[in-house]
Design a protein that fits this description.
Layout (H helix, E strand, L loop, with lengths): L1 H4 L7 H27 L7 H11 L5 H15 L2 H4 L3 H6 L22 H6 L1
């Protein structure tokens, strides 16, 4: 008789986990309710609500205007004098006052008097 009295029916793992989860969630709700009663602070707006308000308040700017502004910023940041300098030279502030002297000469088939013919090709 004692075996029959102590018999507990089998409960699947899935159902046991669900029961534990429900018990745990009930405990958390009770703790959360107690904390809210103690604090009783006004609720703040969520970040999504704040974003929605800011988006409504902001003026609507077309895409092409935004792209134009971005391009202007990029052009301002890259000046023509610095465009051909290396990063190392820019970082150290190296400036060149004289051009590099080389022994390069144009090939014989390209001569100054033939420049018009070359350009026409």
């Amino acid at each position: 008789m004692s075996d029959e009295d102590s018999y507990v029916p089998y409960v699947s793992v899935k159902e046991r986990k669900l029961q534990k989860f429900l018990e745990h969630s009930k405990k958390r709700r009770k703790v959360a309710e107690d904390e809210t009663e103690v604090q009783e602070q006004p609720t703040k707006a969520s970040l999504l609500d704040q974003h929605a308000k800011l988006k409504k308040a902001a003026p609507i700017v077309p895409e092409h205007v935004k792209k134009k502004k971005e391009e202007e910023l990029i052009l301002e940041s890259v000046s023509e004098n610095k465009a051909l300098m290396g990063v190392h030279e820019l970082a150290r502030g190296v400036t060149y006052t004289e051009s590099i002297k080389t022994g390069w000469k144009p090939p014989k088939y390209i001569k100054p008097h033939k420049s018009d013919k070359v350009r026409s090709k």
